[in-house]
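Board notes (copied after class):
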Amino acid sequence: MSYTDKLNYINMKTITMIVALLIAGITMGHAQCDKKVVLTSSKTEHMDAAGTVKRTDDETAKIEISKAELQISVNGEHKMTGAIKSKTCDWKVPFKEGKTVIKATISNDQGEDRDVTLTIEGKDGKVTLLFEMEGMPDDRIRVGIDKFEEVS
């Protein structure tokens, strides 16, 4: 085998390895999107439409997301559940770098239905969740995710 043939072989092997790693990374990033997850937070920020924080509450929020359903509880109370209508998911590094947008219709404790959008975003290893209720632009809720768990 000539020197040029060896270089071509090494280059092809390197390219094949890079492609395989990219495919594995993409698969891992999208595979997490179909898993049931539980996100927890200990601090809630209430913001207006411009993103200005109006108040901050120390409270425990638990958000359970499955393929088809969403459940939210705050301090073990104020439970909301609903059906997920759509979900987009693009994570480069699962729940560290990327974004998921969920559109759902949820019902609160009083049986009132509301359309909501949840945006879960990871930047620089920090994950936040933004909760927006249709028709209530001045009461956007943002929580920093303290803990992420995959559940079966």
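Comment from the instructor: The domain at 35-151 is CATH 2.40.160 (Porin). Confidence is low (pLDDT under 50) at residues 11-31.
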